[in-house]
Amino acid sequence: MPKEETANRMGPDGAGKFPAVPFPRPDGGGVRPGAESKTRILVYDRSTGRLERDLDPSRIRETLADPNKLLWLDLENPGGEEYRLLESQFDFHPLLIGDCIHSQDYPKCDDMGSYIFLVLHSIYYYLEKEDEEALSIREFDIFAGTNYVVTIHAGHIKAVTNNRRLLEQSPKIMAEGAGRLLYHLIDAMVDNYIAIIPSLSERSEALEYAALAGNQPGLVNRILSLRRNVMTMRRVLLPQTELIYRFAHGKIASVQPEEIIYFRDIHDHLIRISNLVENLRDMVKSLLEVYHSSISNNLNNVMKILTIIATIMMPMTLISGIGGMNVLFPFDLRESMVGFWIFIGIMVASTSLLLYWFRKIKLL
Fold first, then answer.
1. pLDDT tens track of the chain, all 364 residues?
2. Is the pTM of this model over 0.90?
3. How many Cβ atoms from other residues are within 10 Å of residue 20's Cβ?
4. Radius of gyration of the chain, Cα coordinates, nearest whole angstrom
5. Rounded distance, CA 74 to CA 303, Å?
6. Cβ proximity of 148 and 130 under 8 Å
7. Alpha carbon distance, N-terminus to C-terminus of the chain
8. Is 206 helix (H, G, I), strand (E, B) or coil?
9. H helices of the chain, where?
10. Is residue 157 within 8 Å of 122, Cβ to Cβ?
11. How far apart are the C-alpha atoms of 113 and 247, rounded to whole Å?
């Protein structure tokens, strides 16, 4: 790692202190101008069955000391203050907090013994946007310990919103522990992947009909945009499937044995989605072949028509050329209207004969 990047992550004194304003992330997933930072804290007391909302952040460390309480801290569009909160109230490694500040292109899982750190990616597909802008990838960072879960993300994450609303209605889910809360968050994110597949399939079918109908303006760009979207989704899914495999087969020490079956369910879903994406990839590939075949067929039709016209004109050109020669014709045909109509008749006869022949061999 370059020294400058290390200094940025660790701070100028190397003590893990972060600047007041985080660095912008290359994917645009960091704090955008005008983006509002939101800190949401839910605490469930298993001894009383009560759910406490909007806990004072200064009480987080006190809450973590109580084994009967489960804390969920959600940071949306975090800034310098929120990152300093992670540093002051949790014992997270500074490099992992740095990974939250800087964009991560691939999923990862770091098992730190007392907690795990996850980098996942949520996918959104906007039907109302243009093809090249329809797919949106958002990083989703998670810290999960014995009695807490911390989620960090830029922008709205549907899995977070849905689970927060569910917990506010039925907080008993948090009574099952941090591992089950982590499962619900990842499962909701994966369910959102499944909802994208029908939209991509419908768009692929619409483009296939358009390709069969003939050349349309911008059709090839739309096919290539769909191909990029499918390849992007595939690039996100495959490493994430391998990551969840570690959870589903007990390779993460902090995952309890009774929780493994839940992560196996997520892994099965990811495998099924990956297979569907592979099928979509093949469909898009065949779309390009259909498009090129359609263009080739249209070109062949144009060339066939031009060839027929040129073939019909050849005998007419020959006859008119003979008639225009400066030589004597028998029976004074050049000097009479009879000769003119004889040449016209020969042209009509040759044209009719050629048209009949073309129709007979099914060129027309």
1. 333 333 333 333 333 333 333 333 333 344 444 578 889 999 999 888 888 888 888 899 999 999 899 999 999 999 888 898 898 889 899 999 999 998 888 899 999 888 999 999 998 888 767 766 778 889 999 999 999 999 999 988 988 988 888 888 888 778 888 999 999 999 999 998 988 888 888 888 888 888 877 667 778 888 888 888 899 899 999 999 999 999 999 888 888 888 999 999 999 999 999 999 999 898 888 888 887 777 787 788 888 888 888 888 888 888 888 777 766 666 666 666 777 787 788 888 888 888 888 888 877 7
2. no
3. 9
4. 35
5. 65
6. no
7. 70
8. helix
9. 3-10, 60-64, 80-89, 94-101, 158-169, 178-213, 219-248, 260-323, 337-360
10. yes
11. 15
CATH code linked to domain 3-294:
3.30.460.20
- Sequence ranges of the domains in the chain: 3-294, 326-364
Strand extents, DSSP E, 115-168: 115-125, 135-145, 148-153
